[in-house]
């Protein structure tokens, strides 16, 4: 158990458009979900922490109006990149934690965003 | 969370043991050592974690020094599919806390 999926696995969009990425916990209820961004040949950088039903907590330097996070249920969190630009092209990864597996995080497969 | 230091890259021959070191000299008494790996263009995969005792599972062994200032992840019989970036993360464990990744070690298993 503890499978996390992301959709889409890759997306190409035009500059100025918005893109929504979904993160789902398939076989458990996620108490908290996390969003990371990874540029080529770099490590994962935490963008925000999201709890169901409350506003996300963003890391310093991450624009909350540009990266909209909605965590409407215990199994779904979405990240919307608004007015995307080429510099937003990156690998976006989500993870989830569950109350009965304290300390563990379960990662999704990632979504590759390319903005033209 | 304590900072970790890992070599940038390592090579290992297929079938041999891969020993990946991690230095965490400022680790606190309540911080755990976690190891994850990331195969190219995939999400990170959990490997193992421990507090102070050595740990072993079906994937790897974790050896933590007595003073807890460093640890070694051991892949006993490396295969080509073990080629990945390996991250050593030190963190306090409580419900819903985040995980911060350093640069990791890029392990290349060669035939």
Explain the overall architecture.
The complex is a heterodimer of chains A (116) and B (111). Chain A is 0% helix and 51% strand. Chain A is built from no helices and eleven strands. In chain A, strands 2, 4, 5, 6, 9, 10 and 11 form a seven-stranded mixed β-sheet that branches. A four-stranded antiparallel β-sheet of chain A has the order 1-3-8-7, with no helix packed on it. Chain A is globular, with a radius of gyration of 13 Å. By secondary structure, chain B is mainly β. Chain B has no helices and nine strands. Chain B has strands spanning 9-13, 18-23, 31-38, 45-50, 55-56, 61-64, 70-75, 84-92, 105-110. In chain B, the strands form two sheets. Chain B has a five-stranded mixed β-sheet with strand order 1-9-8-3-4, with no helix packed on it. Chain B has a four-stranded antiparallel β-sheet with strand order 2-7-6-5, with no helix packed on it. In chain B, a hairpin with a 4-residue loop joins β5 and β6. Chain B is globular and about 40 Å long. The N and C termini of chain B lie far apart (37 Å). In chain B, 32% of the residues are buried. The mean pLDDT of chain B is 94.
Q: Determine the mean pLDDT of chain B.
A: 94
> In DSSP terms, counting alpha (H) and pi (I) runs of 4 or more, how many helices of chain B?
0
Succession of helices and strands of chain B: EEEEEEEEE
- The low-confidence runs of chain A, each spanning 5 or more residues with pLDDT under 50, are none
Distance between the termini of chain A: 37 Å
| SS class of chain B | mainly beta
Shape of chain A: globular
Assembly state (oligomeric): heterodimer
Termini separation of chain B: 37 Å
Biggest chain pair contact, residues each?
Answer: A-B, 27 and 24 residues
| Biggest pleated sheet of chain B | 5 strands, mixed
The H-and-E topology of chain A, N to C, reads as: EEEEEEEEEEE
Number of helices of chain A: 0
Number of strands of chain B: 9
The percentage helix of chain B is under 10%
Cα Rg of chain A: 13 Å
* Low-confidence parts of chain B: none
Overall pLDDT metric of chain A: 94
Q: What gross morphology of chain B would you assign?
A: globular
> What profile does the largest beta sheet of chain A have?
7 strands, mixed
């Amino acid at each position: 158990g503890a499978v996390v999926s992301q959709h889409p696995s890759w997306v190409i969009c035009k500059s100025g458009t918005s893109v929504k990425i979904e993160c789902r916990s398939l076989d458990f209820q996620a108490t908290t979900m996390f969003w990371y961004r990874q540029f080529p040949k770099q490590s994962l950088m935490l963008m925000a922490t999201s709890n169901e039903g409350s506003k996300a907590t963003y890391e310093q330097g991450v624009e909350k109006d540009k990266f909209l996070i909605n965590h409407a249920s215990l199994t779904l969190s979405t990240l919307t990149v608004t007015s995307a630009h080429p510099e937003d092209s990156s690998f976006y990864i989500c993870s989830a934690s569950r109350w009965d597996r304290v300390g563990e995080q379960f990662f999704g497969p990632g979504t590759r965003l390319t903005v033209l | 969370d304590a900072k970790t230091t890992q070599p940038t890259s390592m090579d290992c021959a297929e079938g041999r043991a891969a020993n990946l070191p991690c230095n965490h000299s400022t680790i606190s008494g309540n911080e755990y050592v976690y190891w994850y790996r990331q195969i190219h263009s995939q999400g990170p995969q959990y490997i193992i974690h421990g507090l102070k005792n050595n740990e072993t599972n079906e994937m790897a062994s974790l050896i933590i020094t007595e003073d807890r200032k460093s640890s070694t992840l051991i892949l006993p019989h490396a295969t080509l599919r073990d080629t990945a970036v390996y991250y050593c993360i030190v963190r306090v464990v409580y419900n819903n806390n985040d995980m911060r990744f350093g640069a990791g070690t890029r392990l290349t298993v060669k035939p």
